Amino acid sequence: MRNSSHHLMTGRAGEETAAVYLRSLGYSIYAQNVRVQRDEIDIIAYDPHERVLVFAEVKTRSVQDADFSPELNITSAKKKKLQRSSRYWIAEHAFEGGYRIDVITVVGDDVADHFHAIDIDPVL
Prior knowledge:
Blueprint: H1 2-24, E1 28-36, E2 39-47, E3 52-61, H2 76-92, E4 99-107, E5 110-115
Parallel strand pairs: 3-4
Antiparallel strand pairs: 1-2, 2-3, 4-5
């Protein structure tokens, strides 16, 4: 249970670090840890520069590992879940503007990378 608790705490801390980072870029944070059916969206934000809604997936590692990057955890299945949950949220809130899905990686207490508009396979 301790590992699960530590993993959850690390993830939540990473999500907060990512939210602070997005705010520093001028983004407005609309919501964090949003349940959408059986999925979760880590951060929903608005990018005022591109005028789009951003659904951000945050991947966190507590320490840097030269052989592994957090973004490697974004599998094809995870991408489909991100797209499904984003589209569901948009439909539920009758949002009519543009959107994108980003991945933010956090290592320790710092944002390591911010991947804009990740490639998503078409949902059939």
